[in-house]
Design a protein that fits this description.
Radius of gyration: 33 Å
Number of strands: 5
Order of helices and strands: HHHHEHEHEHEEHH
Structural class: alpha/beta
Largest sheet: 5 strands, mixed
Oligomer: single chain
Shape: elongated
Strand content: 5-15%
Helix content: 55-70%
Number of helices: 9
Distance between the termini: 22 Å
């Protein structure tokens, strides 16, 4: 009781002494918290720091949960992506992958994700797609885009909206299978005229490593032209065709099947890269949130100690005023 009365008396006497210069008090209240910390003004509210710590902890919980979700999705997709590599490799050995072939109509198929928070994999794909579009554009050449994924569409529509021939989103809303991708590939082949399809995607290597990759699928007419001119596709003439199908029909079927297999692998590889990049991004965010919490805890302890010291000074000043 006596201590409480002494504290009240101390505050009553100390308050006029602390507010003797109202200009300094007004200036301190108008300064931002960072400037106050630089000038040594210890008037930061502990409640403000506690609220900031609470928000950072909530963000850290969200980033850790997103990392765990991405890890579970990655484990589910990785095996299927590795198995899908065996589908398109025989076609590459037979029909080749000729990125430098000269054609008039080029379609750049950009594979991206529908969601963000996965690093720069989508920006990398868009950058490569723009470079391919510029390289295959000219007075006698025509280049178009086919965009798979919301993120690439949002970036390309800004400056290349008139060149986007077809766009599709929400590919990963349901678990991917070859039937879905083959229907998607059939829609692209029916609605787009092309001499060469150039797919841009991210090939998965590990959780922290992915490689931007391009794959080329030529039209049957270009394949037949390149086979007649020799080169890497010259060995196609050595094969004998059995049955009633002509060479053009066989090449047509092979091209459609090759594109569906390459697209299936590209979508799975890009999905693996997306989840791996999201894991890395969320792990970095969680560590940054931990570092911020450490700094905020230190600021909170300093602010709390400063308020305790201020109260002690007020008590001592009041006691001195009473005894004096």
């Amino acid at each position: 009781m006596a201590m409480a009365a002494l504290r009240r008396e101390g505050r009553r006497f100390a308050t006029p002494l602390m507010s003797a210069n109202p200009a300094n008090t007004l200036r301190s209240s108008l300064l931002p918290s960072e400037e106050q910390a630089i000038l040594g003004v210890r008037s930061i509210s502990t409640q403000v720091v506690r609220n900031r710590m609470k928000s950072v902890k909530n963000i850290q919980k969200i980033t850790k949960a997103m990392k765990m979700v991405a890890a579970s999705k990655l484990r589910a997709i990785q095996t299927r992506a590795e198995n899908s590599r065996g589908l398109w490799q025989p076609f590459t050995a037979l029909l080749g992958d000729l990125p430098s072939v000269d054609v008039k109509k080029t379609v750049v198929v950009t594979v991206s994700s529908d969601k963000g928070l996965c690093g720069g994999i989508n920006s990398t794909s868009v950058k490569i797609s723009r470079a391919l579009h510029k390289l295959n554009s000219g007075p006698e050449k025509e280049a178009k885009y086919v965009v798979l994924g919301e993120k690439a569409k949002a970036q390309l529509v800004r400056d290349s909206k008139k060149h986007i021939e077809l766009s599709m989103t929400e590919l990963q809303k349901n678990p991917l299978n070859y039937t879905q991708v083959s229907v998607l590939a059939d829609d692209i082949l029916k609605n787009v005229e092309f001499d060469a399809l150039r797919l841009v995607f991210n090939k998965f290597h590990s959780v922290i490593s992915f490689m931007p990759t391009t794959a080329t699928v030529l039209s049957p007419e270009v394949v037949e032209r390149e086979a007649e001119s020799g080169g890497k596709l010259g060995d196609l003439d050595l094969y004998e065709i059995e049955g009633a199908e002509t060479k053009g029909e066989v090449l047509q079927n092979l091209t459609e099947f090759q594109f569906s297999c390459v697209l299936f692998n590209a979508v799975l590889e890009n999905a693996c890269s997306e989840q791996g990049a999201r894991m890395s991004a969320m792990d970095s965010s969680s560590r940054n949130a931990g570092d911020m919490l450490d700094r905020l805890t230190l600021a909170y302890n300093r602010t709390r100690q400063a308020s305790i010291t201020t109260e002690l000074i007020e008590i001592i000043s009041g006691a001195s005023a009473l005894t004096g």
